[in-house]
Amino acid sequence: MTKLISVILAGGKGERFWPxxxxxxxxxxxxxxGSGKSLLQATAERxxxxxxxxxxxxxxxxxxxxxxxxxxxxxxxxxxLLVEPEGRDTAPAVAWATLEIAQKYGxxxxxxxxxxxxxxxxxxxxxxxxxxxxALAGEHQxxxxxxxxxxxxxxxxxxxxxxxxxxxxxxxxxYQVSRFTEKPDQTTAQDFIASGRFSWNSGMFxxxxxxxxxxxxxxxxxxxxALKAKGxxxxxxxxxxxxxxxxxEPTQKACVMxxxxxxDDLGDWNAVERLLKQPEQANVEMAQHLGLDTTDSIIYxxxxxxVVVTIGxxxxxxxxxxxxxxxxxxxxxxxxxxxxxALAADSQFEHLL
Length: 353
Description:
Layout lengths: L3 E6 L29 H13 L5 E6 L3 H7 L8 E4 L5 H16 L4 E6 L3 E2 L2 H18 L2 E6 L10 E11 L2 E10 L4 H10 L2 E11 H11 L1 H10 L12 H6 L5 E6 L3 E2 L4 H8 L7 E3 L1 E5 L5 E4 L5 E5 L4 E6 L2 E6 L6 H9 L9
Parallel strand pairs: 1-2, 1-4, 2-3, 6-10, 12-14, 13-15, 14-16
Antiparallel strand pairs: 4-9, 5-11, 6-9, 7-8, 7-9, 8-10, 16-17
Helix pairs in contact: 1-4, 3-6, 3-7, 6-7
C-alpha cells in the first residue's frame, strides 16, 4: 500500500458547541460521542495506520491551540506540528502544510487532509476508502475528495455534483467533479438529493503534493508565492480564504468518490443527538437530569454535582458549563455562532469565550 501522509486540520473554533467549546478548548479537544477520546485523538488514531507511523502524521493548528495538541497527542513529533501564527482559513493551511511536507517527501508524495472534528462509524471501511482515493489521486494526478452519500436534504453542508466516470477503485466509483455548491436552500437541497448526482462535501482531500502546488500556483498565486517566500511569516499579509474557493471550485483536476460509511461532521449540538439518541430514550442526557414532560431534548452539564431540572420542554438544548448556561431550540443551534459573536462584541462577556 502506498503510504499516505496524513495532515489533520485542527485550528477550528467549534463555536456552535459553546459553552462547552471555548477559545482555548475548542470542540476538537472534546469527547462528544461518549468514547472518552477527544475528536482530535480519535482522528489521529484512525489515520496513523495509513501514515504507517506517527512520524508521517502531521497536524496544523492555531498558535493558541498548539499546547493543547501537544498534550492530547504526545506521540506526535514536534517537527510535525505546524503552528499558524493566526487563522486564515483552510487555503493557507493546506498550502503551507503542502509546501512543508513536499520539502521532506518530495512532490510525488500522496497527502491527505482531514478535519479534526469528524465522527466515523466504520473505521476499517473508512481506511479502505482512503486507500482507494489515494490510488485514484496517484493514477490520474488529481485532487480526490470524498463525497458523503446524503441521508437528508441538509442545508448546512456544501454539495458536490458528479460528472463523467473516471474509474473504479476497490469497488468504489470515481467521477470528475462537475461543480461545488455551498450550503443550498431547502428546495435546492431537495432537488440535489432527488437527482442522485450530488453528495455532501466532506472537506477531506487526497492528492499528490505537486498537483496541489501547481493548482495553487494557477488559481491562488499570491497565496502560494507569499508562503514560498516567507513561510509562516507571510500569514499576517494573507487574505482569509477557504481551499474550496481557492482551488476546488475552479480546478479542472477535482474528482469525487462517493462513499457510504457512517459519518458526521459534528457541526452543532444536534449532532450529539444523532450519535447518542436511543429509541427508548425520551432525551439525550449527559447530566443528572430530572425531566417532567420533557422530550426530544439534549441536556448537558459538566459538573458532577450539578442537577438540571426541566419541565414541559420539547426539542430544546440545555447546556450548563462552568460559568455559562445555554438554552436554545434545536432548530436554532446554527445561531449559537451569532450568540458567540455578540458575546465577543461586549467586553463584559470576554471571560465566557
